[in-house]
Amino acid sequence: MIVRWGLDELGLLLAELGISRPLLVTTERFGELELPVATRFSGVRRHAPVETVSAAVAATHGADGLVGLGGGSAIETAKAVSAETGLSLVAVPTTYAGAEWTPYFGMRDEAQKLKA
């Protein structure tokens, strides 16, 4: 785990990790920030619904890493995408939800009314 503070450090950290084409996983609120990312998925929803994770996984085409930016739902979604794709994840929390500190994540299956 590498800890850096502030978005100004993001480009340097990505370079240090060898990530040159990251996918940003975030909400609409942060989707337009000027960040050193190649592509963006700004459709994060509360509790990381399975459908949202699947859509984010589909957006990883050509990406060599992930940047999860936002609160717990954004970080959880990015962790689920990382688990599915094997892409490295840089978490940039905007709240203290704690999701950025654990390897675990949860997803919600709305069709079956399950959260795992």
Explain this structure.
The structure is a single chain. The protein has a single domain, classed as 3-Layer(aba) Sandwich (Rossmann fold). Helices cover 26% and strands 19% of the residues. It contains three helices and six strands, in the order H-E-E-H-E-H-E-E-E. The protein has helices spanning 10-16, 50-58, 72-85; strands spanning 22-25, 39-41, 65-70, 89-93, 108-109, 114-115. It has a four-stranded parallel sheet, covered by helices on one side. It has a two-stranded antiparallel sheet with strand order 5-6. Strand 3 (65-70), helix 3 and strand 4 (89-93) form a beta-alpha-beta unit. Helix 2 (50-58) crosses helix 3. It starts with 9 loop residues before the first helix and ends with a strand. The mean pLDDT is 88.
Outline of this structure?
The protein is an alpha/beta fold and 116 residues long.
Which fold name fills CATH's third level, the topology? Rossmann fold
Broad CATH class: Alpha Beta
Number of structurally distinct domains: 1
Sheet with the most strands, sense and barrel status: 4 strands, parallel
The fraction of residues assigned to DSSP E strands is 15-25%
| Residue windows where pLDDT falls under 50 for at least 5 positions | none
Order of helices and strands: HEEHEHEEE
Strand order across the largest sheet: 2-1-3-4
What value does the average pLDDT take? Answer: 88
Number of strands: 6
Secondary structure class reads alpha/beta
| Rg of Cα set | 13 Å
Assign an overall shape: globular
Terminus-to-terminus distance: 25 Å
What is the count of helical runs?
A: 3
Percent of residues in helices: 25-40%
CATH architecture: 3-Layer(aba) Sandwich
